[in-house]
Amino acid sequence: MRLEDVTLVLRPRLPWEAVDLGCAMVRRDFGRVLALWCSTVFPVWALIIALMPDDPSTASLIIWWLKPLYDRVPLYHLSRRAFGVEPKWGETLKQWPRLWLTNFLPALLWRRLSFIRSFAMPAQMLEGLRGSAMRKRVKTLAVDGGGSGMMVSYAFLKLEIVLLLGFLFTTYSFLPESWEPDWSALLEAPDAIGLDRTPFVWWYVSCYMLAMTLVEPFYVGAGFGLYLNCRTRIEGWDIELAFRKLAARLTKPLIALLTFGFFSASMVMAKDVQQISEQVLKNADFEVHKAKTWEWVPDKLDLGKGPKGDFSAIVAIGEILFWSVVIVAVAALAIYITKNLHVFAFRTKKEVQYEVPKVIMGMQITRESLPNDILAAAMAAWDAGNAHQALSLLYRGSLSWLVTQRRVPIRDSDTEEDCLSHVAKHAPQPEAAFFHQLTGAWIQTAYATLPVTRDELIQLCARWPFADKGGAA
């Protein structure tokens, strides 16, 4: 890296002006930067998705966690272009494994949640420092630009969220109906409803990856612009570059002449300065005044020629009194705790006895009130033209099993909605999913006077999840 080859105008800038400079660098080479991003990041995303096609939540977490690795290839390209080097496509791709493996674990562990990641990454990747030297370097640069680096992370995080929401709202209307979950049922019992939300979550992850692809290169450029501005301010790159350009225009004889004249003038000026300084120091104002003061500092007790006292007995008596008081206090505390153990005893919460209801919403759910084979009785009631009785048998049998075998805390005053909520919280997922479907069919038949079809009843009987066809305990 040579300052003479820099393609930017180096001068101290305000922080957001430096951020704009970095974004301008990305805009200048956006096509190349985006192509490098797609060539290095998209294959990794495709591999993650292929390994976890049925777990989009975990896949999206891994994709988000690997963010620091994605930024390294764009930073490599921007740093070369800033100093007059046109990196070739093949050369950059050859550097891809080395760039990702350098400081791999620190970038994904203790530095992953750094708020100045884009600002510190050039120092970590481009200067070749390791360990404590690299930490000191980042700390030194952060004194001047660390606050701006945090603000850049905050601003681009908000920008990424806004872009993600824009993609979600724009593409939501194009989703197939089979992808959309049942929002009302999901809000009522999110843990008990057996819904396949995988396509819907993959749609969300795709929108997030698209938003990251468009925002992250500019985040890298903004941090690199802050880094260059910080080094310019601290190390005086603009002044050094100006002197180098000036020196390149001077010829060797002129340099020798200026050097000789400089040293000659320095010798003459040194003699004059020495004479003037001696005259100034002889003035009365520069006279050094000294004063002596005496202060008595007692080193040890001086009793003169009289007998010196022995205080060892007093010290021993004091120690005995002190420890006696401590022992008495500890003994008193132990006696108090022994006499009041009931105050410090831990109280265990009494087990709440649950009373199984016999009637719910006016319907008998005891085993005696139900037939031995509930499913056969329900189909017989349907064939006799009594759809209400058929669904009632299935619903009562399910409630009987759930309150007796699963100990679901349903009370006799609960409604269908209350029963559904209790079952979703306390019953196993297959039974809760079946009860949710059965409740919908029961409400539709009992209150909407819109009975289900025979196929739907057969499906409910086929999905009966309880121990036997009798259902109730």
Keywords:
473 residues, mainly alpha, Four Helix Bundle (Hemerythrin (Met), subunit A), 2 domains, flat
Task: Please provide a written account of the structure.
By secondary structure, the protein is mainly alpha-helical. It has 2 domains: 3-245, no CATH class; 359-462, Four Helix Bundle (Hemerythrin (Met), subunit A) (Up-down Bundle). The protein is built from 20 helices and 2 strands. A two-stranded antiparallel ribbon has the order 1-2. Strand 1 (359-360) and strand 2 (363-364) form a beta hairpin. It is flat, with a radius of gyration of 41 Å.
Name the beta content range.
Answer: under 5%
Question: Which regions contain 5 or more consecutive residues with pLDDT less than 50?
Answer: 301-307, 346-352
The structure class reads: mainly alpha
Number of helices: 20
Provide mean pLDDT, rounded.
Answer: 79
Q: What composes the largest sheet?
A: 2 strands, antiparallel
Instruction: Tell me the Rg in angstroms.
Output: 41 Å
Total domain count = 2
Number of strands: 2
The global form is flat
Distance between the termini: 81 Å
What sequence of helices (H) and strands (E) makes up the elements? HHHHHHHHHHHHHHHEEHHHHH
Please estimate the helix content: 55-70%
Strands side by side in the biggest sheet: 1-2
Topology, please?
Blueprint: H1 15-28, H2 30-51, H3 56-65, H4 67-70, H5 72-82, H6 89-101, H7 104-108, H8 117-126, H9 131-171, H10 183-188, H11 198-235, H12 237-249, H13 252-281, H14 312-339, H15 341-344, E1 359-360, E2 363-364, H16 374-383, H17 387-404, H18 416-426, H19 429-446, H20 454-462
Antiparallel strand pairs: 1-2
Helix pairs in contact: 1-11, 2-5, 3-11, 5-6, 5-8, 5-11, 8-9, 8-11, 9-11, 16-17, 17-19, 18-19
